[in-house]
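Human:
Focus on the backbone:
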Amino acid sequence: MKLFKPSNRQYIPLYLMLLPGVAILFIFAYIPFGGLYMAFSNYRLGFPIWSADFVGLRHIRQVVLDSVEVRHVLRNTLVMNIGGILIGMPSAMFFAIALNEIRVKFVKKTVQTISFMPFLISWIVAYNIIHAFLATEEGVFNMALRNWGLIDRGIPFLSDPRFSWRLIIFSNLWRFLGYNAVLFLSAIASIDQELYEAAQIDGATRLQRAWHITLPYLMPTAEILLILSVGTIFSASFDQFYMFQNTMNRPTMEVFDMYIFRFGIRLLNYSYATAVGLVRSAVGVTLFLMVNAISRRMNRSSVV
């Protein structure tokens, strides 16, 4: 084998260091693929998977054609994820450009650090912070509105279905703005500074330099991030929605991850839950490959 050629023997320790990661990936990512059989059978808890009665595409058909709940879950997932992409990516891009224009290094580093800190905390901590601001009775925002005489009763931001989509979109914006801005800042750092110097000599203002030089050079990075985001457009952070969802806002807050959790863990309908997960993954991968192929053909930039 080429792996054990004399010229490659120096890399054997590195290959051995990879083995634990490969083993973990194989055990937790590839072996569970056998459980997909549950999507095509009537699996019952406590019995071997392969002993379940094979039912073909019955559960897949139910997910695609017969389930009204799946349509509502699909609507919620797409609205919140697409809204997050349309608002989050341009916000991070322009925030990175604004950070890059700050000339005082201390101020720039301070703002960048503060914006990045929410990314380092879990959704449990993030929810408690948001709850402290938006709680109906004791939230800072509602208490301020009452003190100013603008409202008589607190607004139920965390439980009213009317606020669900905006709540998730802007909580994601708050948490990931700094992280996404770092990605764009790294792209800005690779821009040839002679372009800015030439534009400055020609009389271009800072705004014009940012618009005509910085922004176009950020578009390839934005395209890659868009492709990656499209691949996860049917997914959501389980711990985020586990914290934010409640009985009042479930009609507009429930996404595929929570829907699978409800049927699989709470209702013990593993076959249907597996079918939902399989359909969601298949559609997500297909959409990712389509967008990646379109981007490669149009702009010669792609992920794979």
Summary: Residues 92 and 177 are 5 Å apart (CA to CA). DSSP finds 13 helices and two strands in the chain.
